[in-house]
User: Which sequence fits this backbone?
């Protein structure tokens, strides 16, 4: 027993001595140990890797206590070993990628010997693209291009033209590619996009050019699903909340090096469903699944006042699914699982005052809500595919605006106004995003996805719509993207007039269609008795 204890103490001294040398060398990795030695030392010290390297007694041997420097030294050793393992995995993946590329090249060379087979493959790809065009626009576009590159068949040309006629969409390369909860937030200037996944990973992407988004940085917000994110009005702070009951604030003044602000905000034992900053950035509202809303002082990281709990006959209290501040910061609006939308006067966040509910609205769960930039309109999505709107004023809600917007076939998981307030977008569990022009409430875009929508936001000046889907992918849709209406069947050829003011297209329906494209406005049929001319047979 004594001999064992002496051996452990000797090992401790060796670790502490190595830690001192490592620190004196400015923590150079050359002073770190290889895996076998680290494993032997951890075994000798009875360290438990699953609990962060904390010592654990065994067979009567007293547990040891390492000083902070030694613990940091062992942690650095573990981190380097993990990094090396990831590098090996990445290397194997790279080799497999090279093998895959070489295999595809070999297959293509083999196919080149059989033109008939290439034509058949091209037609098959074009047909697949046509089938996917109503669910995955990006993949359909890629398959169309591949079909045309395989063989320039008439079907491939028509597929490329049909894909080009739709909305331009780009998948973010930062997408983690795992199915599950996936949300996003857009900085108020519309140029930086944060996207997350179910493992706490958040990627920051420059979305200034929707067709060429660039990854700027990333951060880790715990180990579990991120359910909600929001930027402060000055764009320097990102709030992240999720299933671990916690709200984390990150300083993203430099997106390439985000920094966690401590302490963490944790005040309710329930998942964080929604976070929202007040316009001045000094107050953060966090809505929880237990029906409470907590107000936080973002400078001191302290609670403001008592939890906000809306009246309800249901027990336990229904979850609060969405929350938002009005642009003047005086009113907080929240929607809950029982279909109610409540307003609080938070002019004094230390003493918030319940103002009342919204009249005549959803009867089921309120999954999302948003307030127009001018503060005059409140929009909320329910579990029946409807988007409800109300007129706001300083004293609360003045009344409902017309009938709800319809078109989605399932839960409306996210709603968003464009920065100029001239458009409203809504995404549902049916995999569709609808965009309406305001104030005439006319639908202007339908954006299909292969999975249910979890978030939708507008980027710079409404130039693009950012969406997140349950398939684990974030997308950027260029707006506006006019569609030339007319042809009832596939388009096989297009041609501009010599002056560039008219576009003509020939379609399978036997007509030649012409549009005036000389103005900045959406193209319209070219002035003539008929904008479609029957092609000679």
Assistant:
């Amino acid at each position: 027993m004594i001999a064992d204890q002496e051996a452990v103490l000797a090992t401790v001294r060796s670790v502490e001595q190595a830690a001192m040398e490592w620190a004196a060398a400015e923590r150079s990795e050359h002073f770190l140990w290889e895996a076998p030695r680290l494993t032997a030392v951890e075994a000798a010290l009875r360290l438990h890797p699953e609990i962060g390297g904390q010592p654990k007694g065994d067979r009567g041997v007293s547990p040891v206590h390492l000083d902070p420097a030694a613990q940091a030294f062992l942690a650095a050793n573990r981190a380097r070993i993990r990094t090396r393992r990831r590098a090996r995995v990445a290397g194997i993946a790279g080799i497999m990628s090279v093998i895959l590329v070489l295999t595809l090249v070999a297959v293509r060379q083999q196919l080149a010997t059989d033109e008939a087979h290439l034509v058949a493959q091209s037609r098959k790809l074009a047909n697949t693209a046509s089938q996917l065009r109503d669910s995955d626009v990006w993949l359909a576009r890629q398959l169309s291009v591949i079909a045309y590159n395989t063989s320039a068949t008439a079907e491939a040309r028509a597929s490329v033209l049909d894909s080009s006629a739709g909305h331009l969409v780009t998948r973010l390369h930062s997408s983690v590619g795992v199915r599950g909860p996936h949300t996003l937030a857009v900085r108020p200037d519309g140029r930086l996009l944060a996207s997350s996944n179910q493992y706490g990973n958040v990627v920051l992407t420059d979305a200034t050019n929707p067709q060429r988004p660039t990854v700027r940085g990333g951060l880790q917000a715990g180990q579990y699903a991120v359910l909600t994110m929001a930027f402060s009005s000055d764009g320097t702070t990102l709030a992240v909340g999720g299933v671990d009951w916690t709200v984390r604030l990150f300083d993203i003044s430099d997106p390439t090096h985000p920094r966690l602000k401590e302490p963490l905000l944790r005040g309710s034992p329930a998942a964080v469903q929604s976070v929202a900053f007040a316009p001045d950035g000094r107050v953060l509202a966090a809505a929880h699944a237990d029906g409470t809303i907590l107000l936080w002082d973002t400078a001191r990281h302290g609670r403001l006042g008592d939890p906000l709990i809306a009246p309800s006959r249901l027990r336990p209290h229904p979850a609060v699914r969405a929350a938002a501040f009005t642009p003047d910061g005086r009113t907080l609006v929240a929607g809950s699982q029982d279909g109610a939308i409540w307003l609080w006067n938070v002019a004094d966040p230390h003493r918030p005052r319940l103002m009342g509910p919204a009249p005549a609205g959803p009867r089921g769960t309120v999954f999302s809500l948003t307030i127009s930039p001018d503060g005059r309109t409140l929009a909320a999505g329910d579990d029946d595919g409807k988007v409800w709107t109300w007129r706001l004023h300083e004293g609360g809600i003045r009344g409902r605006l017309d009938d709800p917007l319809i078109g989605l076939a399932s839960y409306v998981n996210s709603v968003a106004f464009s920065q100029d307030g001239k458009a409203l977008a809504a995404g549902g569990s049916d995999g569709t995003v609808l965009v309406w022009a305001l104030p005439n409430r006319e639908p202007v875009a339908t954006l299909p996805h292969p999975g249910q929508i979890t978030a939708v936001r507008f980027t710079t000046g409404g130039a693009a719509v950012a969406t997140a889907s349950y398939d684990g992918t974030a997308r950027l849709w260029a707006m506006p993207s006019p569609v030339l209406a007319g042809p009832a069947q596939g388009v096989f050829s297009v041609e501009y007039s010599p002056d560039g003011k008219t576009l003509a297209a020939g379609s399978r329906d036997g007509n030649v269609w012409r549009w005036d494209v000389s103005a900045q406005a959406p193209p319209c049929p070219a002035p003539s008795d008929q904008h479609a001319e029957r092609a000679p047979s």
